[in-house]
Amino acid sequence: MMKSILILNGPNLNLLGQREPETYGHTTLADVEAMCKSVAAGLGLQAECAQSNLEGELIEILHEAGRRVKEGELIGVVFNPGAYTHTSVALHDAIAGAEVPVVECHISNVHKREQFRHHSFISPVAIGVLAGFGVRGYELAIRALAAHAEDAG
Ligand code: DQA
């Protein structure tokens, strides 16, 4: 059975391509998702993609992902939590509670930007963090998660 990887995008990332292009570029979320599917396929994985602007829905998706990781069908989640990165104890707790392997991914280098973007509630419960490589970061995060899953066996 081919294992899956979930590409999960949080609030406002549905506007990718039109939203602040000087920061986030011109690539749309549909383009990113297509790129993720092809990168995953090259690694023998199936990429599933989801986006929500709702914190509670992201929590439900992470819980479900945790269940599927335990069943052995999903290896983990590449997660761009958008602005919830900097605000959400609930997403932190969802990742810890569901024991879901997460690579945190940001298009922009959040550390180069406003002070309020420097703190992440997600990083302490992530395997690792990628930021500042534009939408290419999703590809790097997929490769990092796949390598981590291989190491973990
Ligand atoms: C972001 C960075 C966040 O600070 C911001 O709120 C986003 C996108 C990024 O991908 O660079 O919505 O996660």
Structural notes for this entry:
This protein has five helices and five strands; from the N terminus they run βααβαβαββα. It has 153 residues and is of the alpha/beta class. It has one domain: Rossmann fold. The chain has a five-stranded parallel sheet with strand order 2-1-3-4-5, with helices on both faces. α4 links the parallel β3 (74-80) and β4 (102-106). α2 (29-42) packs parallel to α5 (136-152) and α3 packs parallel to α4 (89-98). The longest helix has 17 residues, at 136-152. It is globular and about 40 Å long. The mean pLDDT is 97.
Task: Quote the CATH topology.
Answer: Rossmann fold
The distinct bound ligands, ions and cofactors come out as: 1,3,4-trihydroxy-5-OXO-cyclohexanecarboxylic acid
Strand content: 15-25%
State the fourth-level CATH superfamily.
Dehydroquinase, class II
- Termini separation comes to 16 Å
By DSSP, the count of extended strands is 5
Unreliably modeled segments: none
Mean pLDDT value: 97
Share of residues in helices: 25-40%
SS field, number of helical segments: 5
Query: From N to C, what is the helix and strand string?
Result: EHHEHEHEEH
Cα radius of gyration in angstroms: 14 Å
- What's the CATH class label? Alpha Beta
How many discrete domains?
Answer: 1
Reported for the largest beta sheet, the result is: 5 strands, parallel
Q: Which structural class matches the secondary elements? A: alpha/beta
